Amino acid sequence: MAIITKFTTVEYGQNSELSQLSEGDCSRYDARKLPVVKDLNCVVYEMKRILGHSQNIDEAAFFGKYRRLLEIAKIEVLNPAIKALINFWDPDYRCFSFGNVDLCPTIEEYGMLTEFPKHLHRVYVPLRNDKVIPELSKLLKIPHLSRFLEKNGSGLKWKFLEVELERKKEQYVSMLERDRLIVLGIYGLVLFPSLKGVTSLEAAAAFVEYENTHVNPTTAILAETLLTLNHFRKTGKGAVRCCTQLLYIWMVSHVETKKPIFNNFWWFNQKPLKIVEEEEWGILGDQGWMKKLQELPSSNISWKAPWVKSVDVIVSCGRKCWVPLIGITGYVSYALALVIRQLGGIQHIPRTVGLAKFSGFFKDQSAREVLETIKQDWSHLTLIQKESERLRDPSSSEGYEKWRNLTPIAASKKPCSEDGPSRIEEGSLKRKKG
Q: How many CA atoms does the CB half-sphere of 239 hold within 13 Å?
């Protein structure tokens, strides 16, 4: 059980600004030196075939266990919008920067979109690959499941799993087994995509963990998103290895349009989004979306998505002044304090020391030691408590406005370091335990 410390948005923000004065900031990449994203392989992973098997499911039972997975799978992404968006990603501060406006997908926002029922503020820890196939075979009741593996053993071929799904439908086996096969496909082809038509062992591990121990995959989904964005921004090309459906809905939720998209809760009515896509965005290609986002005035940015609710938000873990995330392929840092206005907080100067250097992939031998450190960090969480009545209007401190208007080089007082002070100052304010 994690130890939880709570502050109000004002208490945490004021203390953050005091700590930042002594710590300084991580330096930020000069965006002019980063490549423009030209080669984006954003494949539609046979989702129509998966969704075709969902027509006769018990929707109430499916929703009760898997929440919004089917609705997420049905989202049609405008690839030029995602391609343009990536060019505004800051790989050091882990946020999109539009002029002096910073935005980033958050754990809480993704949690509201997926609606997984339990443990949003619990870190994902991956299951060992050698345990995945035996556990998956038990869940799906498919013996000798290893025969469906790719030659290199990296994942399961969906076309073979689809044959099993058809067989189970013909034999009138339990709906649970059929639902699990559909959900495994969504995990491997939507939430954690890898090769076309292949569910990676890492994605299958996340599915197994959810089935066996109800581990909420939201933090892992966000981690893979940040890792993918960092890769694209630094190389300018690659294949998408994150959930573009969630990223796309998050994006359009923060960009105001002539016609409102979210009159009703969007999961039940996506027609307004389709109308905006056809009437306002239909003619925009790659260059059109780049121009749109480059010229986007701050007045056209919605700090709070229309579907955001007032909740407790996690801002740091353990001795780190930000949140370390574990995905299915690697780990990465994430700083909600940069974008607290998205969840109704007052924006103060964030603490960023050590943020840029904290990322890696599990193929590196040192990563396993880092995982143990992250698990220890997540045993002590710092939260900003939700507003008692409603989300406050977005606002920022005077100090933040001065800090953000500095050039990236001028804003950096000290080189980025993993060392140095990182805890909330003891005695600087009265803590509220929760």
A: 10
Q: What is the CA radius of gyration of the chain?
A: 22
Q: Which residues, other chains included, contact 217 with Cβ-Cβ below 8 Å and sequence gap of 6+? A: 116, 124, 187, 191, 206, 209, 210
Beta bridge mates, 346: 395
Half-sphere exposure (CA, 13 Å, Cβ side) for 325? 28
Amino acid at 314: I
Contacts of 5 (CB under 8 A, 6+ apart): 380, 381, 382, 383, 424, 431, 432, 433, 434
Per-residue pLDDT of 330-377, as tens digits, reads 999 999 999 999 988 889 999 999 999 999 998 877 787 899 999 999
Per the CB < 8 A criterion, the answer to whether 176 and 152 are in contact is: no
DSSP letters, 224-240, are HHHHHHHHHHHHSEEE-
Task: Report the share of the chain in percent with pLDDT over 90.
Answer: 47
Q: Which of 100, 72, 6 is nearest to 388 (CA)?
A: 6
Q: How confident is the model at residue 263 (pLDDT cuts 50, 70, 90)?
A: low
Nearest to 87 by CA among 262, 293, 275, 267: 293
Sheet holding 89-90, edge to edge: 89-90, 95-98, 101-103
Count of CB atoms situated within 10 Å of the CB of 395: 12
Helix, coil or strand: residue 197: coil
Identify each DSSP E strand in 271-329 by its residue range. 313-317, 323-326
User: Can you tell me whether residue 273 is helix, strand or coil?
Assistant: helix
Tokens describing residue 181? 């096969």
CB contact at 8 A, 190 and 245: yes
The answer, as to whether pTM is greater than 0.70, is: yes
> Cβ neighbours of residue 255 under 8 Å, at least 6 residues apart?
296, 300, 301, 302
Report the C-alpha gap between 359 and 214 in whole angstroms.
26
Lookup result for tokens 């968006």:
85
Is the CB of residue 339 less than 8 Å from the CB of residue 307? no
**348, 16 contact by CB (below 8 A):** yes
Mean pLDDT calculated for residue range 220-230? 96
> Between the ranges 59-63, 116-120, 370-374, where is the mean pLDDT highest?
370-374
